[in-house]
Structure to design on (589 residues):
């Protein structure tokens, strides 16, 4: 086990060489007062964040409750020392800048012998997929890339001044994360590329922006989300890093490891000692250096292709040293790209090496289902022990790490489930949604379902800009009227379904009365619960679809139902016998 070491620098790079990402650093002024505040284990996070914010004048950002306990915040000048000595605080660290490190069977898949392991069933037919969940902590993953089994994701790109956790989303606006995801688990479907763990369920955890930059607090928020979902996610890949040690990042990863999540991370591209980079220096991850391989077989005889290097040697850019656990192909790696970027592309970097190891960990985790740190380190040791030494380590560090090798079918024997091209045919999803309106604002809830899988993307058209890809969005119209709203959903096998409904909004009414309505079903019967405030009369008139249905006591609540035909209704409440009415609210069942 490698020792933890500390370094003062605060800069991290996404380890990718093949393309220039234009990674404009976040301005130093925006991070100079931003800190990560880690609480002692006994402290209740939700109960203490507001009090600490008031006591020290903090502007809270994320709150962390799973991988570690704490928060990110802007700390006013002159208050840091007092904050560090608060008895509830374990330690405070600066919020560091973080940026990216950077069907053909790719040479990397061939070089680790994945295509020779019959248990992986790589045959250009999507008849079987590896039953495992992998988080890609990166720039996001393209939800429209049909060569990937993207099942969900979150967006942790939030200003330290806003929000307390990650939001739904995670689509890739850079390409780095999508490339990483393809190496891990691209589907064996006869088109594009294939991954180490074909068809693995991919979770997009977006912690870096479109330029490949982010803050340590964003990265920790992503790790915290993974830890909160450790009963589902077994493996995480972090193809990011750089100089500077963050105790908070280390502790966050340790919290996720304790929950049973294995981590593969890139060693870095500086041709330097990986012990001077984070998270490469951490002893609770698998740190991966990059091999230059141009033909997918050992021997060292292939000529260079996309960049100049010596075949079957440690890549000339790769970091090295005792912190490195294993090597994997990382030069001229073909993998998936966002659909709008061409679908596939060739990149180089330790960013491309790390996901090979994440895929190997995923194969093992599909069968072992790790639940704690002991299980995770058993996976690390199994992957390292299975490696070979059939390459030239020309780094000069005197340490030759094993090269990833998944050919051992006894060890790398994943649990497989039917894919989209075999077994029972895929059942398409069923698109549906409900909505409520208040004034000109409509709130939508997707009730879509998929009988043999899950919904992975939502596309809303409100007949007015902007559209939305959120699961449950809201939209405020510019004027009263009836609008056509459509929802298209896609399942994890790429099938789609659409539904369109009419939505009526109105800016009229009000009179000081505020109405909200909740629609629901009890078996097949439809009901609507009305709640209002602001009426001053003894009784109120309740209207449905423009007709008065009852006069009832002004006690603030009324239930309408059971109702018969119809999938929507518009309600308002008026002071009895007057035209002083509430806003109109439309609901659907």
């Amino acid at each position: 086990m490698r020792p933890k070491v500390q370094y003062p620098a605060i800069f991290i790079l996404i380890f990718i060489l093949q393309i220039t990402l234009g990674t404009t650093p976040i301005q130093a002024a925006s991070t100079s007062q931003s800190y990560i505040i880690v609480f002692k284990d006994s402290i209740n996070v939700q109960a203490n964040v507001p009090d600490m914010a008031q006591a020290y004048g903090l502007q809270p950002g994320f709150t962390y409750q799973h991988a570690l306990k704490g928060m990110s915040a802007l700390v006013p000048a002159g208050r840091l020392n007092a904050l560090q000595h608060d008895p509830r605080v374990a330690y405070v660290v600066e919020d560091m800048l973080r940026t990216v490190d950077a069907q053909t069977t790719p040479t990397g898949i061939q070089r680790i012998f994945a295509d020779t392991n019959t248990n992986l069933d790589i045959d250009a037919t999507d008849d079987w997929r590896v039953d495992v969940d992998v988080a890609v902590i990166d720039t996001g993953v393209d939800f429209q890339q049909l060569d990937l089994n993207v099942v969900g994701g979150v967006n942790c790109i939030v200003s330290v001044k806003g929000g307390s956790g990650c939001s739904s989303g995670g689509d890739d606006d850079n390409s780095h994360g999508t490339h990483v995801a393809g190496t891990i688990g691209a589907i064996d479907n006869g088109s594009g590329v294939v991954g180490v763990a074909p068809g693995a369920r991919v979770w997009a955890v977006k912690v870096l922006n479109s330029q490949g930059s982010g803050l340590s607090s964003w990265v920790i928020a992503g790790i915290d989300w993974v830890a909160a979902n450790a009963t589902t996610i077994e493996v995480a890949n972090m193809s990011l890093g750089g100089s500077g040690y963050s105790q908070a990042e280390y502790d966050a990863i340790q919290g996720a490891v304790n929950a049973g999540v294995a981590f593969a991370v890139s060693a870095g591209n500086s041709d330097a000692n990986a012990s001077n980079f984070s998270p490469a220096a951490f002893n609770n991850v698998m740190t991966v250096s990059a091999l230059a391989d141009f033909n997918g077989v050992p021997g060292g005889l292939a000529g260079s292709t996309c960049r100049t290097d010596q075949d079957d040697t440690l890549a000339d850019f790769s970091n090295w040293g005792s912190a490195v656990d294993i090597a994997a192909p990382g030069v001229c790696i073909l993998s998936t790209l966002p659909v709008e970027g061409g679908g596939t592309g060739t990149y180089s970097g330790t960013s491309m090496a790390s996901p090979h190891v994440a895929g190997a960990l995923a194969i093992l985790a599909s069968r072992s289902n790790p639940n704690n740190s002991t299980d995770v380190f058993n996976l690390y040791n199994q992957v390292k022990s299975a490696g070979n030494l059939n390459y030239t380590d020309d780094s000069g560090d005197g340490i030759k790490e094993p090269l990833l090798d998944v050919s051992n079918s006894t060890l790398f024997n994943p649990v497989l489930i039917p894919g989209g091209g075999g077994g029972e045919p895929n059942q398409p999803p069923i698109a549906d949604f409900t909505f409520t309106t208040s004034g000109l604002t409509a709130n939508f809830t997707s009730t879509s379902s998929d009988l043999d899988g899950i919904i992975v993307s939502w596309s809303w058209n409100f007949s007015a800009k902007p559209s939305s890809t959120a699961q449950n969005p809201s939209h405020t119209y510019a004027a009263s009227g009836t609008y056509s709203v459509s929802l298209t959903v896609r399942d994890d096998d790429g099938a789609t379904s659409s539904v369109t409904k009419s939505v009526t909004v109105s800016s009229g009414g009000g009179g000081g009365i505020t109405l909200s309505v909740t629609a629901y079903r009890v078996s097949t019967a439809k009901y609507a619960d009305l709640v209002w405030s602001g009426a001053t009369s003894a009784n109120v008139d309740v209207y449905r679809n423009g007709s008065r249905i009852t006069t009832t006591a002004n006690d603030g609540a009324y239930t309408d139902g059971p109702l018969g035909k119809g999938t929507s209704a518009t309600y308002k409440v008026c002071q009895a016998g007057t035209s002083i009415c509430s806003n109109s609210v439309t609901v659907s069942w």
Summary: The domain at 433-505 is CATH 2.60.40.10 (Immunoglobulin-like). Residues 1-13, 18-32 have pLDDT under 50 and may be disordered. The longest helix spans residues 350-368. The CA atoms of residues 418 and 424 lie 8 Å apart.
